[in-house]
Amino acid sequence: MNQKKKLTDLLKDASFLRWLRAGRPGSDPDWNAWSKEEPNNEQLAEDAAAMEQGVPFRRQAVSDELTQQNWEGIQTRLAQEDGAGQRRQLLRWSAAAAVLLLLSAFAVQWWGGDASWTNHQTAAGEYETIDLPDGTTIYLGANSNLQYQTAFLSKDERLIYLEGEAYFEVQPQEDPMPFLVQTPALNVRVLGTQFNVNAHRAEPIVSLTSGSLQVIYPDGDATKILEPGQTAQYDVEKKQFNISEDVSDYWASWRAGKWEFGAGMPMTEVIQRIEEIYGLKCIVSDPAILQRKPAGRVFIDDREELFSALSSLLKVTFTVQGNELHIQQSEN
Amino acid sequence: MTPNALHQDNSRSGSHLKQVHRSELSMNQGQRSKQQKLRLQQGDISALEELYQQYHPELYLYALKLTNSQELAKDAIQDTFVAIWKYRSNLAKANSVRFYLLQAVRNQCLKLLKKRKRFLSIGQVSPEMVIHPEELKLKDTSQEAKQKITQALYSLSNRQREIIYLKYYENLDYQEIATLLSINYQSVVNHVHRAIVRLRDADVLKLLER
User: Which end of chain A is more exposed for a tag (fewer CB within 10 A), N or C?
Assistant: First the structure.
């Protein structure tokens, strides 16, 4: 029981749930020990207990008259529609398609190759939390791929390969072993620290929350040491790093299920992010939309919710057609 | 909608609700449910009426929750049962009749909401979910407490409120919610986790009966 556990796994574990319900601690020595292993475990148990207990709703009642009325309505309708109903087959097929779609939405993990790499892949719109054997936590963003060597701790370097976007909480080591994140365009070398890498773009963005790290741009032979709160993007033409001081909250916020726009985020950035995360091509009907700067925060846990929030924030409508997202001015 | 009329606490039936929901698992009930499905498939309308009488209250309340309109909720319920009758062989194959019915009601509600003009764009398909403090069992019934609960519930996202409702009012499990909303399991757990932590951080959980 000495491995790091995820909430999703804990909530499926019958012995864990029994332990929670029996009012931990006391009922199960194994889980008692687990909760003491690290401070985070106690917090997890507490959160899980709160989730199990939940929110108490009052039961509500419906009057018999209403039940009777609705039944009469149904009987009238059935009498009218008697005889129809040859479309069952179609419905069956669409149900099968829905199941397929659902299955493909889950991330796959496999073990392959002789060097044995572990591979994590996320689909459009979803993210995944990955706990590495050394205690590092990685939040893998949507439409992204991350690989690490399975025999992680036996290497003299912790090497991660990333395509897409990820937020890292790197566990500091007593005997510091370099932690290296490689992306198609740039590398990041760190000791214990928290940072985000967006490598969806040709000019990737690295944003540092705490600690310190070195950004290495191999093609330009450039390196830059970042300070907490700084965000770097490499400008390939000018061969230099552009540093911003006020967007690290934005780059750290997606893993908490939201985007923190702060005082105002350029619309072009928001559009690019939607394209990266959902694999959609955005078509903007009116250039005036690109001048808007959404402020505050939106929740991003699912697409409908995000679009709904953005459409009221920006007074625009979103329409998906195939893999195109059309963004238009709202009518009123 | 007049929420208060619906907020009478029906605790007598409430205490048994969870058992009723899971009743399909027990032998006798399971047998009955199987027979009911069979009769329905054979075109026995009395089986539909039994099903209706058994599930109407909770399905109507769910429709009301999704549409915030007695008129739409009524339409959604009628559409649902007409469709169930039409496609009765599908219900016969469902593992859980209750879950199948909830799913059907939700689809009908979304269809009706979409028909109304302001739900045209895809960003607005998600139903507006409102939870009043009066719907919860309160330990502290003071105005201040209710105010605080309202604010905290309002600070949750619409999706979070919907999932909280499905998890703790409808007693669906994480996988059922994931299937119902067509999102993945991890997202459902994340939503519940974040919502509960948020309510706890806002000091609201301690105002509720637990």
Answer: C
